[in-house]
Recover the amino acids of this structure.
C-alpha cells in the first residue's frame, strides 16, 4: 500500500509541507458566527492563476493553524474549494485540493457511522465527538479544471465530509445537541488565546 496519495493518486513521496505552501501567504481564519461560514459557497467558474494563488495561501494557512483541511470560506472566500493534508486510519497520508466538490451519497449497506473527536479551525480550541460515515467519495475538479475523484476512509473520510459541509454553509457544531454545542463554545472561549499563540509561533517558525 503506498504511504502517500496526492490528488487521489499514489506517489513515491511528498515533502512535510506540500509544495503549494512554499508559494503561499498566511490568511486570517474566519470564526463561527461570521456570515461567510453560514451560507453555501458559489461554484468556481474561473480556473487560472488567481485560483492557484488562493490554493497556495490556503495550504500555508492550514499548516500554520495545524489543521488537516481548510475550506475557502474559512479564509473568507465564498468559493467551493478546499485543501487537505490528512492521514487515514492506516497512517496513509492524503494531500491535495478539490474544486466544486460533491459528496457522493453512499448506500447504507456500504457505510458505518463512527463517533470520534472532531475539531475545526474556525472553532478554535474545541473538540467534540461527532458521528460520521467511515467512508467518503468526493467528485470535483483540480485547479486546472480536470475531473477528480478522491476516496477516503476513517479519519480522512471525516475530513472530506467536514470540509464539504463547510462549503455547504455548515459547521460541525450544527451536528451536535444543544448541550454539546454550548460545551464546544465554552471550550473555544477557554482555549482560543492559547490556540492563537500556538498559530503565531508556528507562523514564525515556518517563515524563519
Amino acid at each position: 500500500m503506498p504511504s502517500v496519495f496526492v490528488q487521489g493518486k499514489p506517489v513515491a513521496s511528498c515533502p512535510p509541507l506540500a509544495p503549494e505552501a512554499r508559494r503561499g501567504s498566511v490568511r486570517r481564519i474566519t470564526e463561527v458566527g461570521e456570515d461567510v461560514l453560514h451560507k453555501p459557497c458559489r461554484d468556481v467558474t474561473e480556473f487560472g492563476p488567481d485560483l492557484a494563488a488562493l490554493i497556495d495561501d490556503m495550504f500555508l494557512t492550514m499548516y500554520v493553524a495545524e489543521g488537516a483541511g481548510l475550506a475557502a470560506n474559512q479564509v473568507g472566500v465564498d468559493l467551493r474549494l478546499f485543501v487537505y493534508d490528512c492521514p487515514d486510519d492506516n497512517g496513509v497520508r492524503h494531500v491535495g485540493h478539490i474544486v466544486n466538490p460533491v459528496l457522493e451519497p453512499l448506500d447504507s449497506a456500504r457505510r458505518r457511522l463512527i463517533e470520534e473527536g472532531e475539531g475545526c479551525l474556525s472553532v478554535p480550541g474545541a473538540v467534540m465527538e461527532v458521528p460520521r460515515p467511515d467512508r467518503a467519495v468526493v467528485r470535483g475538479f483540480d485547479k486546472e479544471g480536470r475531473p477528480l475523484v478522491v476516496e477516503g476512509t476513517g479519519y480522512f473520510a471525516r475530513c472530506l465530509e467536514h470540509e464539504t459541509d463547510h462549503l455547504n454553509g455548515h459547521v460541525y457544531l450544527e451536528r451536535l445537541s444543544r448541550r454539546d454545542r454550548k460545551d464546544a463554545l465554552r471550550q473555544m472561549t477557554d482555549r482560543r488565546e492559547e490556540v492563537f499563540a500556538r498559530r503565531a509561533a508556528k507562523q514564525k517558525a515556518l517563515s524563519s
The chain has four helices and nine strands.
